[in-house]
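step: validate -> pass
step: tokenize input -> pass
step: predict -> running
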Amino acid sequence: MTEIGNSQPPPLELGPHKSWFARHIMSEILGILLFGAIAAGAYYYQVSQSEPVIIPPVHHEKVDTMANWKTYTNDQYGFELKTPVELMPLDATTGTGSVTTAGKTYQTIQLINNIVPDIKIIKGYTDVATDPYGNPPSSIASKVINGVTWHIFYNPAGGAPGCDQASFQTITKDGLDLIDVSFMDEEHCPGDPKTMPSVAYINQILSTFKFTTPSSVLDTSTWKTYTNSQYGFEFQYPPSITYQDKSSSSGWGDISFEDANKSSNGFNIKINNPGFGFGEGCLDIKTSSKLVNGIMMSRSDYCGLIVYHFKTGSNEFYILNSKILDKEYFDEKVLDQILSTFKFTP
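step: predict -> pass
step: emit ->
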């Protein structure tokens, strides 16, 4: 009979090949983890120790394309501008002419005669809405450039053969004359494009235009004094001016002043003239008020004939910018300076 005891089965033992494989896998995993930790630490150390790379900003220097441009200054009419070419002023005697519009003739003074630009003064013309030469306005009737309002007109084929002329006009600082700055328009000219300015080029020139203080206040240190005791007034006048008193004993005054260098040019003072009339045929009369040396005067423009009118007591004054009606007109800047010295005497 066989006896049953408490014996246990023998423990399971791994074979030598299975134990080695497990240890090898664990070693590989630990090696990979260790290598990753070392690599990460080395990368962190390198980044923390390195200086940041700063890329300096690129500065683009602005090139002044007008640095070598020439400045043209006109002290008489109070303005200046820059151009890329040397502008040669014309002689005062050869640069004069005239233009007639709406039945009135205006003196023109050519200051510069260049293609880029051509500059002239039109004396006494202040109607900026209408070109004195009768040219139509451009598609842009007016344009503000550097704070100055320019009125733009086109003169078809008015410049070089086959070329249109663009005319930019503005009023002088004292409000008495017109500045006409003209350019040949390359968009309407088959000529050499090297000599024809573009619109951008015109704008660049006019962007340098600015008003200065005009030399309209004349040197009066040598002026003489005219005194009229009959009507109680006096004023100063240039030494080149002579006068003739044609006053009537019947009670009205008529004093004629003329330039000794040009007898047709002068001005006239009429006082209490009962039959005095002027401006016949003028349909465009412009009247304004002007305070002159404390005297309120009305200023009327009868198509070029300027008449200052004022009253004092029983006397009525008319001062004309012409010695003879409808003849050559006296320089209004000089007349304004004369009137600025006008005063009543006891």
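step: describe -> The longest strand covers residues 104-113.
step: cleanup -> pass
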